[in-house]
Write a structure and sequence with these properties.
The complex is a heterodimer of chains A (about 140) and B (about 140). Chain A has about 140 residues and is mostly helical. Chain A has 6 helices and 2 strands. Chain B has one domain: Glutaredoxin (3-Layer(aba) Sandwich), CATH 3.40.30. Chain B is built from 5 helices and 5 strands; from the N terminus they run H-E-H-E-H-E-H-E-E-H. In chain B, a hairpin with a 5-residue loop joins strand 4 and strand 5. In chain B, helix 3 packs parallel to helix 5. Chain B starts with a helix and ends in a 7-residue tail after the last helix. At the A-B interface, helix 1, helix 4, helix 5 and helix 6 of A face helix 1 and helix 4 of B.
Chain lengths: ~140, ~140
């Protein structure tokens, strides 16, 4: 499993929190959809190719110095799928004329992003173990 | 500017603060099991835990993505240097899913504390605070100065 700098997912969560806050304040379904697209790329192509991952590597990491810790990307990548589900519902709510649903789903995604950025607690990662537990063992 | 969106932002910030506070107060809190729990000895036996060989055996379930797990592991290693009666067994949760289910491990790190008779004297989820972990270990293990 590829490894990522532990600071990268946390940075990405911070950017995500800013984007989702703006989207909520502007009531912009398009912006929520853009964040959903970012999640989709991260989940599908991996964190290293994800937009915020690239941003971290190119702009942030060189200023912070070398990575002190790395982690396997599986759980944070799974967390992107969790984020994707919430933002897809949020974007659909806004764009299909149900802004209340849009705001609630986007708000929940914002909670997860804020929590990760502020405390390092990764809700999607915690769900990863619970999901692995619930599913039968893979061969 | 969206009114409902602004409300959602405020609610989200408050919820985040509440969850962060809840996690903080709960992380590492040691629960002492009550009588009726399922017998855990066979599960620990499968993991190769031999509680009879130490005054206190700590079994730590970790996942690779879990930063607090690394800190807790380091702390336990440090305690072991001056407490020869303390044994630590590290278990990777993902590769021991049967045991994870049997012991109802939901988060990492989850720590189990076993006395020399193999009895479960406590369990905790989330990273324990350093001083609490030390106090708990010292309640069971002699310190070599």
């Amino acid at each position: 499993m590829p490894q990522v700098d532990v600071r990268a997912p946390r940075f990405a969560a911070g950017v995500t929190a800013v984007v989702l806050t703006l989207a909520l304040l502007l009531g912009s379904g398009v912006l929520v959809a853009a964040q959903a697209a970012v999640f989709a790329v991260a989940a599908g192509a991996g964190l290293r190719r994800a937009p915020y991952g690239v941003l971290f590597r190119v702009l942030v990491a060189p200023r912070l110095g070398p990575a002190r810790e790395r982690e396997p990307e599986g759980p944070p990548r799974f967390a992107q799928v969790v984020g994707l589900v919430f933002t897809v519902v949020g974007a659909a709510g806004y764009l299909l004329g149900a802004p209340a649903i849009g705001a609630v789903a986007t708000g929940l995604a914002l909670v997860a992003a804020l929590l990760n950025a502020a405390t390092g607690f990764c809700l999607g990662c915690e769900l990863y173990l619970i999901a692995r537990r619930a599913l039968p063992a893979r061969a | 500017m969206s009114g409902i969106g602004a409300v959602a932002v405020v609610v989200a910030v408050v919820m985040t603060a509440l969850v962060a506070w809840w996690l903080r107060s709960r992380d590492g809190a040691v629960r002492v099991p009550q009588g009726e729990e399922v017998p855990v000895d066979p599960v620990f036996e499968r993991l190769g835990v031999e509680p009879a060989r130490a005054e206190l055996t700590v079994v730590q379930f970790s996942t690779a993505f879990c930063g607090p797990c690394r800190a807790t592991k380091a702390r336990l290693q440090q305690l072991q240097t001056t407490r020869p009666g303390l044994a630590v067994v590290q278990v990777d949760a993902e590769s021991h899913l049967d045991e994870v289910r049997a012991l109802d491990v939901r988060r990492t790190p989850t720590l189990f504390y076993l006395d020399p008779e193999g009895r479960l004297v406590g369990r905790s989820s989330g990273a324990p605070r350093a001083e609490e972990l030390t106090a708990l270990v010292d309640a069971h293990v002699g310190v070599r100065p």
